[in-house]
Amino acid sequence: MQLSTILTSIPLLASLMLSTTASVHAQSKSTGKVASDDVILEMSQAFKKGERKRLTSLLPQVRGHALEPWGAYWELRARLDSASAMEVQDFFSRFAGTYQEDRLRNDWLLLLGQRRDWANFSAELPNFRMNDDREVRCYAIAADQTLSGADLSANLKREWYAQKDADDGCNLAATRLYGAKKLTDADIWRKARLAMEANRPRAARMAAEIISPEAAAPLDEIVNNPTRYLSKRVTAGGKTGKEAVVLALIRMASNDPDLTASVLENHWSVHLNPEQRSWVWGVIGKQMAQRLTPDAMESFAKARDSELSNDHLGWKVRAALRQGQWKTVLEATNAMSPEVRQESTWVYWRARALLKLAKGDADRAEAAQLLQGIAGVRGFYEQLALEELGQRINTPARPVALSAEEKDGARLNTGLNRGLYAIHAGLRSEGVKEWNYSTNLHQRGGMNDRDLMAAADLACQHEVWDRCISTSDRTKIEIDFEQRFPMPFKDAVVQRATKIGLDPAYVYGLIRQESRFVMDAHSGVGASGLMQVMPPTAKWTAKKIGMTDFKPHQITDRDTNIAIGTGYLKLILDDFAGSMPMATAAYNAGPSRPRSWRGTTGGPVMEAAIWAENVPFAETRDYVKKVLSNTTNYAALITGQPQSLKLRLGNIGPRDASQLVANQDLP
Length: 667
Description:
The chain is mainly alpha-helical. 65% of the residues lie in helices and 1% in strands. The relative contact order is 0.06.
């Protein structure tokens, strides 16, 4: 859709543009773009390259442009470290209420925190509407501790433990709280363990340094060669020494859990206390569970559930499901923190365990109550819970049609319009951020269901399908399935899928997850188009399906991408004997991995839901569940008939080692 079309169909932006100078709204006959759109795009590139002077010279040319707030943000952000407080406040005033104002406030708060300017930080913090930056929240804890001496240790641990990479804000807050004796050595070492387990050695080192330089001293050797570090020690030697051994065993387990189990059992177990031993056994069990080895349960059995992390417990549940140990499933889910225990994944499996172990009506009633609490059409486990209660997946009744006033509320929303404009101008990332900010209404109450549906409708009307879907997905009570599960390019998709014997609902379910129907979508690893096809896969598949005239540049062409994507999906579906869960995993992670994940002759036949939950890669595990949930909902929409996710899942058994793979060269 050209920007000239956008301007005529979005009244607010049209009025914004009409207020600019003649040069701003002059149209380029060759591109259909507003002339200064090119300047905005140039500023975007200059910002990414850190060209401060170029940004400053270009800024006057975008005065009055609909995307001027972005240009002004980039220009000031690039020189924020040298900007005066007055310049920053002037920006806040000029662009009050915009996403750019609050984003710059985020940047400014980080800078004030780095400067330890707590007075100005605390004065500005209440104005930060998004409050979506963990480091800012940690700086707030550090500032509060400095100014009031309040005990904020629980808040800090929540932020710090969830943090992936080390940053100044959380480390500073932890250091100050530790100095004030509001954090213990055990709290600090827990952070170091979590960081080491997540392969974040810098974060582990920074945590240990809070205790003392001596505590952090062995970290480099532990990271580089944990086996050598352990081999040089006869005993652990004090609390710090024991924790260093724990970190070394954690690091060692990531590469060789079997060897680590032997080393722990035969030497280090007697030197560690029960809590430390439990944690290491939990790490070993998790690593074994991710490798789908039966010994995982033996390792978990040597640990106390109360001393394991939620992540350890999650993998204990998965390993127990594979072995049909329902009592362990129940015990491990009950040991999770209250917040994690309420996630639909663990609610569902806890309910299933109660049903398997039920000794009377009370157990069955508790299970039914758990299932009823999550049952619905919103996701994988919600749908499975619905079926466990004896119901099928149906298309919900459509909400009352949006009124003209409700549609106008979205149509005249400045932030939504600017988001759409940015997306169509080629600034998708910026447009998405602005759109999300506007639909969140700065996190203060947010939009209600009707507002969200009106915003989704606006995005759908302008074929910005990813914003249409994500916005409609957020409604809590009213559900518009046609917004949540749109079917663009229906003739092309249905015709191609039907021709090669694929369920169109499956194709739509996959595209919705892959690209949200963004035709020029590109992934970080090089996949392209609606069905996110990798170049080597496209070349191989084109040859396989007889597309002799395929050229690499055609990969983002709609019909070509659909033809190659569906062709590849059909080939892997046939290769896995029609198993949608396995074919879906193969589409995401490559065919060889699902073949290994299913096991070989002699292994158990299991529910595909258990198999999917045990997929070692978090991305693929989530992908399989979302694609099959999407597929079930699309099937309900397309057929108008009740659907079963369970039937689509089926069971997965071990691979017959003697059975030949149809397409051994599948990429």
